[in-house]
Amino acid sequence: MEKRVLVLNLDHSPVAVVTVQKALVLTFMDKVSCLSFYESLVVRTVSREFRYPAVIRLNQYKNIPYKGVLLNRTNLFRRDSNECQYCGSKKQLTIDHIIPRSKGGKTNWTNLITACHRCNVIKGDKTPDQAGMLLKTEPFRPTLGFFLAEYAERHAEEWMPFLELRTV
Q: Rounded CA gap, 167 and 150, in Å?
């Protein structure tokens, strides 16, 4: 039972990811409804078999304050697909402030990117415009759905219809 289950609030916003065991318990307690199942995976008991839930929805709305995705090195690299946002290299990656801190640049999602060591040194204490460098993609603040969709693409295609791929 190594699969994970996506938990949606009553309004279909992602709330959490739980184990199959936890999802089955919530189902038996009538706290959730199953919206999607994993293909051909079942849990067997002596007298019954149950399909693996892939996506479940809470039966009552839970007010869960959204704190956003944590800004850290791992999440920043994941957002930028582990590649330099100037040249596309995947080697010797560092974090670069688009507007340098010395020039008032903030440490936030829209001012940080992944850059290889070489490009970071070339850019130095300048903005990309001043250094004559172009960004491959515009930095953005990712949502929980963005990272869940990344996981779903590799491990749980059944989640995809339930995840919005918008960025905030």
A: 13
Confidence grade of residue 65 (pLDDT, cut at 50, 70, 90): confident
pLDDT at 159 over 90: no
Element (H, E) at 152: helix 144-155
* Gap between the Cα atoms of 5 and 122, Å rounded: 45
Task: Tell me the domains of the chain and their CATH numbers.
Answer: 4-66+143-162 (no CATH), 73-131 (1.10.30.50)
pTM of the model: 0.70
Tell me the C-alpha to C-alpha distance, in Å, between residue 168 and each of 101, 141, 144.
Answer: 24, 6, 10
Residue 156, φ and ψ in degrees, nearest 5:
-150, 75
Dump pLDDT digits (tens) for 89-108.
Answer: 999 999 999 999 999 999 99
